[in-house]
């Protein structure tokens, strides 16, 4: 059984920073592919960044250089450090995980079977 619980969402001003956390209840956390997605009303959920089982990170273009995905294996926690936040970054952010995803589809939501409940980020 895999459980993901996000936290850290908040309201911040444009240009500010925020760090999201995703606590995973799972065996062998470091074998997981785990990442962040976000969703705004009326739009499809989209990939933001992920970390594969080899520790490599992948990001969508519009967050490169601003967002950083990292993990703490001992705490079984994934983080999303968000800097230079923009109003368009406002969304419900989800943590997602699976044991393996197809290379080239690392930020495709259909590749992930395990999801958290989401945490809201509002940038104004």
Summarize the structure.
The protein contains no helices and eleven strands. With 124 residues, the protein is an all-beta fold.
What is the H-and-E element order?
Answer: EEEEEEEEEEE
Mean residue pLDDT: 94
Tell me the overall shape: globular
Structural class: mainly beta
Strand content: over 45%
The count of β-strands is: 11
List the helices and strands and how they pair.
Blueprint: E1 3-7, E2 11-12, E3 18-25, E4 33-39, E5 46-51, E6 57-59, E7 67-72, E8 77-82, E9 91-98, E10 114-115, E11 119-123
Parallel strand pairs: 2-11
Antiparallel strand pairs: 1-3, 3-8, 4-5, 4-9, 5-6, 7-8, 9-10, 9-11
Question: How would you describe this structure to a colleague?
Answer:
The chain is mainly beta. It has no helices and 11 strands. Strands 2, 4, 5, 6, 9, 10 and 11 form a 7-stranded mixed beta sheet that branches. A hairpin with a 5-residue loop joins strand 5 (46-51) and strand 6. 33% of the residues are buried. The mean pLDDT is 94.
Labels describing this entry:
124 residues, mainly beta, four-stranded antiparallel beta sheet, globular
């Amino acid at each position: 059984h895999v459980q993901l619980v996000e936290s850290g969402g908040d309201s911040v001003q444009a240009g500010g920073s925020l760090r999201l956390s995703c606590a995973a209840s799972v065996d062998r956390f470091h074998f997981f592919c785990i990442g962040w997605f976000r969703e705004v009303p009326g739009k499809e959920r989209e990939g933001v960044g992920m970390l594969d089982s080899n520790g490599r990170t992948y990001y969508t273009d519009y967050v490169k250089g601003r967002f950083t995905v990292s993990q703490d294996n001992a705490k079984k926690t994934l983080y999303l450090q968000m800097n230079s936040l923009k109003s368009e970054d406002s969304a419900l952010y989800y943590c997602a995980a699976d044991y393996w995803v197809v290379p080239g589809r690392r930020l495709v939501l259909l590749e992930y079977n395990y999801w958290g409940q989401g945490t809201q980020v509002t940038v104004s």
